[in-house]
Task: structure prediction
Amino acid sequence: MKITLKNLSKIFPPQTKKGSPVHAVDKVSLEIPDGKLLGLLGPSGCGKSTMLNLLCGLLTPTEGEILFDEDNVTALAPQHRGVGMVFQNYALYPHLTVLQNILFPLENLKGKEKLTRAQMLSRAREAAGLVQIQELLDRKPAQLSGGQQQRVAIARALVKLPRVLLLDEPLSNLDARLRLQTREEIKRIQKATGITTVFVTHDQEEAMSICDEIVVMDKGQIQQMGHPQKIYDDPANLFVAKFLGTPPIHVFSGNIADKTLYLDNAPILPVNLPDGEVTVAIRPEGFLPDETGALQCQFQGLEVMGRDTAILCTHPACAAPIRAIVESGIACDTARFSIKQGKIFFFDTNGNRLYLGD
Amino acid sequence: MEKNNYKGWLYLLPAVLFLGVFLVYPLIDVFIYSIEEGYNTASGTSFGVGLYNFHYILQDPHFLQALKNTFLLVLVTVPLSTGIALLISLGLSAVKKLRSLFQTVFFLPYVTNTLAVGLVFMLLFRQTPYSPGLFNTLLGLFGIAPVDFITGPYWAKMFTLCFYTVWVVMPFKILVLTGALASVKQDYYNAARIDGTGKLRIFTKITLPMISPSVFYLIITGFIGAFKAYSDAVAIFGTDLNAAGMNTLVGYVYDMLYGNAGGYPSYASAAAVVLFAIVLTITVINLLVSRKHVHYN
Result:
C-alpha cells in the first residue's frame, strides 16, 4: 500500500482567547512507498503524532488529501481505512485476556466480513504466532512485561490484516535492553508481513537503525526525507544536522574570507564559498588528531568508553564543549585536529545548507 | 522494632478507645439485649435469656410492614438511582459546553438540608382542600386523576418515598461516576474506534468494565444506605410512621426505643439484629457476585 499525502495541514484552534492557532502539520506532501518501514522523526511538538492521527483518521485534516494507493481516504472514518495502530501505552484492555484483546477487532466485524468463531481463533493464533506470544494467550495484560504487552498490541493491530500499520512511539515505555530487542522484532515483523508501516519516534538512533526511510520533521514541516544514512551524511539544513547523531554534531560560528574558512580568526581550511559569516558543523568522528592540524582546541580531558575514546576539549568559536570521537589506544594530550572530508557541513546564518562550489 | 511496638499501640490508643466505647461495646450490647427477655432499663434486670424478642417482632404487624417497606425501597431505588446516575454521568462526560453548570445543578441536592427538601417534596406532592399539589396538576395535564401522594394509598406513598430517595442519593453517585468515567484513558476509546467498535459495544465491553469498581462501590453503599433509611420517611410523612404505614426498619428500632410505643429496648435490639443480618447477607452476596464482574487494575 503506497501512501500519498498531498498538501496536508492540520490547524488547531487557539487554546485561549489571546492565543494563536497552532499549525501542527503545515502543508506536508509526502509519498510513502509500498511495503516500507518509514520513521517519522522529530522533537516533541513537531507534529509527528498529529501526522499519525491524521493517517489513522482519529483527526481530520484542515486541508489536503490522504491517498492509500489510489483511494482517497481523507474523509473516511478510522474503521473504514484498514489501519492498525499501536499506541504509545499500548491501550490493551486490562480486563480482557491477551486472546480476548487480540480477538476484539475481529468481533467488531459486521455483515460480509463477519467471521465464525473458529476463523477468529485461527486468525488470532496466527497473529500471536507472528509476534511469538502463543504461551501468553490466557494472561491479563497486567501479568505481562512491557515488551510482551508491546507484542500483544502489535498482534491486535495486525489481526484484522490492515493495509497500513501505525506505531506511535512504540519503544518509549521500554527499558534500554528491551528497546534494542523490540526494535529488531518490529523490523522482523514488518519484513515478514510486508505491510507498509509508519513509525513515530523522537529517538534518532531508533529511527536510523530500523527504518528504510526516515522523515525528519520540525514545526509541522518536513525538513528532510530519505535513507537514514544518506540524511546523516548529507543533511539538508542545520536542524537536521543537529538532530541526527549521538553525540550531537558540533556547531561553530565561522567566517569565510578569500575562500578560506576562519574559526576564531585562525585559518582552518580552504573552501569554495563566498565571503561572509557561516555556521560550520562538524561530526564528532570528523576530528582527526593531527600534530600539525589546523584546528587548535584547548584540551580538557579524555573519556574512555569501551570501544571509543573521546577527547574532550573546547574551542572559542564553539559554544558547547567538544567531544571528538577517536580510535581508542591513541594517547593524546594535545588537541590539534585536522578535519575529515564529508564530516564538515556549512550553513548560512538561517541554517540553510551551503554546498561547496566546484 | 520489637522494642518500639508499644509506641504503635500508644498512637492507636485514642482511636481504639473511642471505637471500643462507642462502637464495639454497644454492638455487643445490642446482641445481648436482643436475647434478654423483658429487659427493664430502669432496674437493669430481665426475666431470662431466649428468642422471645425475635418471636415477638416477627409477629408484630408494624415490624412486618417496616420490613416490607424497607425491602421495596431497597429493591426499587438502588438499581434505579445507579442506572439513572450512570446515564446522567455519560451525558455529562459527552457534553463540552456548560458542563460545569450541569455538574453544579446535579450536585445541588447533596448540599441541601434533608428536612428542607422533605418540605419541598410535601409541597410538590401533598393534596390540600385548596390545591391538588404541583405533581397532581402535572398529572392532570395528561388526564390522570389526582392522587394524594402523602396521605393517600400505599403505592402512592411508596412512590413518593422512592422518588425522594432516588433524587437525594443521585448527586453523590453522579459525582463518583463522572470521576470514574473521566479516569478511563482516551487511548482505549481511540483504539476501539480504529477497530470499528460500535457505541453499545464500547460501553459494555470497555467503559463498564473499566468503571466497574466505582459502580460496585455505589451498589454496596446504596444497599446499605437504603436499608438504613429513616430520616427521609420522617421528612415526608412526619414522625408517626407506623400510623402512616410507611415505617422503615431503622424507624421501627427508633420507635421501639423512644417513640410512642417507647421503652422496649429488647424488641428494638432484636429488630436491629435482624437488620444487621439482612445487610450482612446482602453485602456478602454482593461481594461474591462482584468477584466475577468487577475488574480492579
